[in-house]
Amino acid sequence: MTAVRERTAQTPPRGLVRTFWLLHRAAHRVTGGRFGLQQPSSGARFGMMRLTTVGRRSGKRRVAIIGYYEDGPNLVTLAMNGWGRGAPAWWLNLQANPDTTVALANGPRAVRARAAEGAERDRLWARFGEFPGWGDDIDALASHRPTETTVVVFEPQPGEDSGRAQGSAVAHGDGTARQHAGAPAAPAGRAEGNGRSRFQLRLRHLLVVPGLAIAFHASGQAAQLGLGIVPLLAFGIAPDLPRLLGLGQARKPGQMPRRAVPAFNLMHHPLPPLALFALGAAGVVPPTLYVGALAWLGHIVLGLGVGDRLRSRDGFTRPLWPIGRPAAPSVSSDPAGAPASSESAA
User: Theoretical Cys-Cys bridge with 256: which of 189, 228, 282, 315, CB 3.0 to 4.6 Å?
Assistant: First the structure.
């Protein structure tokens, strides 16, 4: 019994946690907010909400998708940081500016954040067990953290109904936080009341679905073969390592440093993982490489969906559909050719 308890209390690897956060935000963004948020259901699941904060040092808009449950009119969550050390950035930002707007599955809500204390914290902490998903034993998981895990309460702001109408853009996931009492300001250059959304659903966004399907299939194969998550992490993250080659090199917006382009294109071309997958299916290479090829291919397909694709020699993205064939360098400012990364700094 002791061995089982220790296993269920293990914290997830940080790389896996951060990858999930990134994929979750990307899926929410590319679907225009139609995926990624959910209402809590006691005994079944916790809810998911999209939280917008203002960076305490940068003053820039930050976004995170976090779990919650409802306690009367309040929303309750944990500043757990994926059960890692330290407080999550969104909670540090809220301590500097507690008034904000959250997007729920049923609409936006203007709220004010605070930390629960004393008897209220004990009562709210005990209720997390009613909403599965936080972990089988949150007391054991919390014990891995050197400091007490803060229970955060989001209370409705006065005049929340009027704030709801002004913040409707957030609920639809268009990446805009409209100005109202205490809420983050809209990004500079955004014209209010023009009736146009920053996000436009494009044909390439449909590739997110098969990309996620391949990734989940790879995870299932790893579990079935008893390989763990090491090949998933190694092959799922490795395609982006060539970006490190371009650190410190000057570049324009939307451009990849030129010295990183050859390695990046090699790691993002579908032929290498497809060849490795075929060899794995034929039993020529170990099962680890077979599962890794699936994770690698899922990374590539998901990247195509969010706009991260092969580059021309000058570092700009190539047209999507002639992928794998020579193409003239593209210096177009078409927003469809730039990676969708406005939420990646949440």
Answer: 315
The encoded tokens of residue 179 equal 């100005």
Q: Which burial class, exposed, middle or buried, applies to 244 when counting CB atoms under 10 A from its CB (0-12, 13-18, 19+)?
A: exposed
Per-residue pLDDT tens for 196-251? 445 566 777 788 888 888 888 888 888 888 887 778 888 888 888 887 777 767 77
196: DSSP letter = -
**Rounded to whole angstroms, how far apart are CA atoms 227 and 249?**
38
Q: Which tokens go with 86?
A: 């330290």
Our CA angle for 143, 76, 37, nearest 5°, is 105
Alpha carbons 175 and 189: distance in angstroms, whole number = 13
Does residue 65 contact residue 28 with C-beta atoms inside 8 Å?
yes
Query: CA–CA separation, 22 vs 61, rounded Å?
Result: 17
Distance CA 323, CA 331 (A): 16
Element holding 89 (H helix, E strand): helix 89-96
The letter for the amino acid at 285 is: V
**Helix, strand, or coil (residue 300):** helix
E-strand ranges in the chain read: 47-54, 61-71, 74-79, 99-104, 107-115, 150-156
CA atoms within 13 A on the CB side of 240: 12
Look at residue 5 and tell me whether its pLDDT is greater than 90. Answer: no
Helices (H) and strands (E) in the chain, counts: 12, 6
Q: Judge whether 75 and 50 are in contact, CB under 8 Å.
A: no
For residues 154 and 77, is the Cβ–Cβ distance under 8 A? yes
Walk me through the domains of the chain, giving residue ranges and CATH numbers.
Answer: 36-171 (2.30.110.10), 203-337 (no CATH)
